[in-house]
Specification:
By secondary structure, this protein is of the alpha+beta class. It folds into two domains: 220 residues, no CATH class; 93 residues. Helix content is 50%, strand content 21%. Helix 4 packs antiparallel against helix 5. The longest helix has 88 residues. It is elongated. The chain starts with a strand and ends with a helix. The relative contact order is 0.09.
């Protein structure tokens, strides 16, 4: 977690310096945006509205990954899913990630794009039924130097001519070029770009400005003691989840073991039944062979008796 030293100056008097938790830290980010209370929900709605550039009725976190680092001051990558409801009633699921480490952009984007596709998989469905996946990347770093602040990319391949595949699409916003673009766009009033830039600046270094007053207050109140308390709360939730998962796994294993034992018993019963049937078949075979042998003997005796009768002129 980055700690920013801020100084409030009124006249010539300098107030005591206050440590403010950085939103780039996973623990602080989720504390502000994913707690189960109206204030955090409103903060999340404003955040998602700024990122998407549309008015939202609500935003709710989905399956938030519980993060409980043993070192709460360590900067981590934030990741959580949000379901948003637009003013017109349309819904969308959005995955939010804050990247705080240098990474292989191409491989990372390909990885998450592949996950987006894989998450649509339904047994028996056709590949053509898969929806196109969009990834919106807001980066403080230069992913593609000497280019525009906004890049729209599609997968394509060059072989004699260009082929475009209607699969993954990336919209990459490079903040290092965005501020210059806004200055060049002065007078055109692109409010979305301005709001996006202000949000990203605030995330990088929180200050008391609108419309992030509530978030700033939360960060100001996020003292070392509260960080530790929140970390312990997350650890306890993770521990309980682990216990629940372990119990579920144990029950599942027990159930599977019982099913395997039942299957083994059924197999053994079938084996014994097959063995009994085999013995019965062998006995029947012996009985049939005995009957055949007796029939052969009787036939020979009849033939011999007939021969005697012929010799005496009786046939």
């Amino acid at each position: 977690m980055h700690i920013q030293k801020t100084t409030n100056i009124i006249g010539n008097n300098e107030s005591p310096k206050t440590e403010i938790a950085s939103l780039l830290a996973d623990c602080a980010f989720k504390y502000v945006y994913t707690r189960d209370n109206p204030k955090s929900r409103e903060n999340l709605r404003q955040l998602m509205s700024t990122l998407i550039g549309k008015k939202l009725k609500k935003a709710e976190p989905l399956a938030t990954e519980i993060f409980a680092s043993a070192q709460p001051n360590t900067e981590k990558t934030s990741r959580f899913d949000v379901r948003v409801v637009m003013d017109d009633g349309d819904e969308a699921d959005v995955e939010v990630q804050l990247w705080t480490e240098k990474d292989d952009y191409a491989k990372r984007l390909s990885y998450y794009g592949a996950k987006l596709y894989a998450s649509q998989a339904i047994k028996g469905a056709k590949y053509k039924e898969l929806n196109k996946c969009y990834q919106i990347i807001i980066s403080q770093d230069c992913i593609f130097p000497h280019t525009s602040w906004l890049l729209n990319l599609d997968i394509s391949a060059q072989e004699n001519r260009m082929f475009k595949f209607d699969t993954m699409h990336w919209c990459i916003i490079q903040l290092n070029y965005l501020e210059q673009a806004i200055r060049e766009d002065a007078g055109h009033g692109n409010k979305y770009l301005q709001n996006l830039l202000e949000l990203c600046k605030f995330i990088a270094e929180p200050t008391r400005v609108e419309p992030f007053e509530d978030v700033y207050e939360d960060l100001m109140a996020f003292s070392a003691e509260q960080i530790e308390a929140y970390r312990k709360e997350m650890e306890e939730r993770r521990r309980l989840d682990a216990i629940s998962t372990r119990k579920y796994t144990e029950e599942l294993i027990k159930q599977q073991e019982e099913e395997i034992a039942e299957q083994k018993q059924a197999i053994e019963a079938n084996r014994q039944e097959l063995a009994a049937n085999k013995q019965e078949l062998a006995a029947n075979k012996q009985e049939l062979e005995a009957v055949k042998a007796q029939a052969d003997k009787n036939a020979k005796e009849r033939d011999a008796y007939a021969e005697i009768l012929r010799q005496h002129g009786l046939l």
